[in-house]
Amino acid sequence: DAGVIQSPRHEVTEMGQEVTLRCKPISGHNSLFWYRQTMMRGLELLIYFNNNVPIDDSGMPEDRFSAKMPNASFSTLKIQPSEPRDSAVYFCASSPIGGVSEAFFGQGTRLTVV
Amino acid sequence: EDQVTQSPEALRLQEGESSSLNCSYTVSGLRGLFWYRQDPGKGPEFLFTLYSAGEEKEKERLKATLTKKESFLHITAPKPEDSATYLCAVQRPNTDKLIFGTGTRLQVFP
């Protein structure tokens, strides 16, 4: 298994532009998580899905952020419009649904908004 | 409010010098406590899951223990390749999400 796959690995964009981050979870995993990591705040959960349905989006900073999971093998996190304070590393993770189960992380997307 | 606190923030060890990292938590019930290792430029890598107080897990030079209020990651005779950031996370009942601490950055010098 290739693990959780994220793209792009790096993204540099200008303030005000739309940014889309992509994630392919591990096959058979029904839970998908989007995290943001910064030096100041560490790893913060933005949103998670179970069986493609958003369960908890309380960590989404504001309306500029949106996430979708159209099927079991693909999810996107979109920022529109982007701002310099959105600069961070964004991680996608997946796990089997329910029970006590560790989440497996992708390599992350480093976003820089200038 | 659920909270996970890790200490120290950073730790420098000489190769072979054993030590422990701490993760203290306040959470309404505990479904599981997780330890991860993160190398620079990479995603967190799963190490251990602990479910109940008194439980211990071992992997090579690492041993994780759990009490009702905290967890320790003991590193015995560390090597330079153990240098990384170690993250602790907790999971509450009836949810799949993990709440992470800010990590301990470990550096092991030869």
A few lines on this structure:
The complex is a heterodimer of chains A (114) and B (110). By secondary structure, chain A is an all-beta fold.
Report on the architecture of this protein.
- Chain A has 114 residues and is mainly β.
- Chain A is 0% helix and 54% strand.
- Chain A has strands at residues 5-7, 10-13, 19-24, 31-38, 42-50, 53-56, 65-71, 74-79, 88-95, 104-105, 109-113.
- Chain A is globular and about 40 Å long.
- Chain B is an all-beta fold.
- Helices cover 0% and strands 57% of the residues of chain B.
- Chain B contains no helices and 11 strands.
- In chain B, the strands form 2 sheets. In chain B, strands 2, 4, 5, 9, 10 and 11 form a 6-stranded mixed sheet that branches. Chain B has a 5-stranded antiparallel sheet with strand order 1-3-8-7-6, with no helix packed on it.
- Chain B starts with a strand and ends with a strand.
- Chain A binds chain B through residues 4, 31, 33, 35, 41-45, 48, 50, 55-56, 91, 93, 95, 97-98, 100-108, and chain B through 31-32, 34, 36, 41-46, 49, 51, 87, 89, 91, 95-103.
